[in-house]
Amino acid sequence: MEQTKSYDLKKVSVIGLGYVGLPLAVRCQERGYEVIGVDVDESKMTLLQSGKQPFSDEYLEENFALFPLSVLTSDASAIADADVHLIAVPTPVDAMKHPDLTPVIGATEMVATHTKKGALVVLESTVNPYVSEEVIKPIFEAHGFTIGEDIFISHCPERINPGDPKWNVTNIPRVVGSFDKTGLEMSVQFYSSIVDAEIRPMKHIREAEAVKILENSFRNINIAFVNEIARSFDKMGIDVKDVIDGAATKPFAFMAHYPSCGVGGHCIPVDPHYLVERAKESGFNHNFLKLAIETNDAMPAYTVERLQDALNEMELPMKNTTVGVLGLSYKANVADLRESPAEEIIKELTAHKCIVETFDPLLPEHSTSKSLEEILSKCGALVVATNHREFIEALTPELLETHNIKAIIDGKNCLNRDAFMAYGDSFIYRGIGR
Predict the structure, then answer these.
(1) What digits encode the pLDDT tens for the residues 325-338?
(2) Could you tell me which residues come within 8 angstroms of residue 396 by beta carbon, excluding any fewer than 6 positions away?
(3) Would the pTM of this model clear 0.85, i.e. be above it?
(4) Concatenated DSSP letters of 80-125
């Protein structure tokens, strides 16, 4: 859009200092803004104020030491004179997979209580369409603000990919929508100043909300498709990874997705539920999307089924077999437990009366074993639930034989299948679709 006016935006508050908010706060400071970072989690604030990062992030590792820790606080009144408020709190689902907007509502109430007139408020948290209209806007109106006159509200859905060495808060293109022209112009100006990439204005704030939901529903559906193909190819003795790699040689009309033991993280397994529930309120039933969710949710159980079949081939029982789960985080080389399929795999193994041991080099406090060597010494079977670099580099057929491992399920298809399959009869290797 053509920028018609320059707005005096100097001070930024960031509410929620997690995977999204903390890099945002550091980036704003890097680009010359006065920043105030707020989080109600006292343990996180204590960690941050001691100069420690609560999670691993390459951008933070390079820039966090330059960030003034004095700007971090749990005092909501500190945001009162900010020109821009960025709300970056979690948007989880509850036990019934219904959207839980409690953090968003709490953060919005905080801003509405303490902000000055004329400020720009941007919701970065992922939400379904209509949240800005039905939840955010009424809160500000209840506090006496008139949207588009003395407060400006926008939505710019976060795009953070934890552990990505290339794409981060500085260079990922963004979309933004607002209730009015002034709010949209302010938002485009602000994001253009901190992001070295395209900032695409949307015609309506509802469209901006729908963008992130579409992105992650697209991924959920495509992953579900290859997960189903993997289960089909297991029956037919076809290596699904080889087939996908072959199909990916087509230079158009194909996008490679790969199967695994389940989807995790805060986006792909969560956001489709937001769309399903809100569409239901509008009178539409997402049959296709619900089937994709169901397919992906079934993968941890299928992974354990693969283990059971492998142990049966070795004439070994599931009951009382010690099974090592390698990896607890949802993603390789990231210490993040959110919606990790490892949790469901552990539940399934426990239901089968297995003795479960766990090891994640990035999450030692959540692991029952302190090292790969220790867990291998305890177990008769393994499930690779996270494709951490350490596992890929260290796990070999020789190592499994040395520790008398009888079955290994490669839930991420990250190991050298041919080497394991060719090794001999001392153990059984199975992947997901291979």
Answers:
(1) 999 999 999 999 99
(2) 419
(3) yes
(4) TT-SEEEE-----B-TTS-B--HHHHHHHHHHHHHPPTT-EEEE-S
For residues 166 and 259, membership in a common domain is answered with no
Residue 218 has which token pair? 């697209």
| Rounded Cα–Cα distance for residues 21 and 38 (Å) | 9
Q: Do 106 and 172 form a contact (C-beta atoms < 8 A)?
A: no
Q: List, in order, residues 6 or more apart from 64 with CB less than 8 Å away.
A: 26, 53
Total number of domains in the chain: 2
| Segment (H or E) for 386 | none
Active site residues: 267
144 and 38 fall within a common domain: yes
Distances (CA, A) of 24 to 18, 246, 319: 10, 39, 48
Indicate which CATH number applies to the domain containing 32.
Answer: 3.40.50.720
Q: How far apart are CA 278 and CA 91, in angstroms?
A: 14
The pLDDT tens digits for 340-396 are 999 999 999 999 999 999 999 999 999 999 999 999 999 999 999 999 999 999 999
Specify whether 139 is located in the same domain as 244. Answer: no
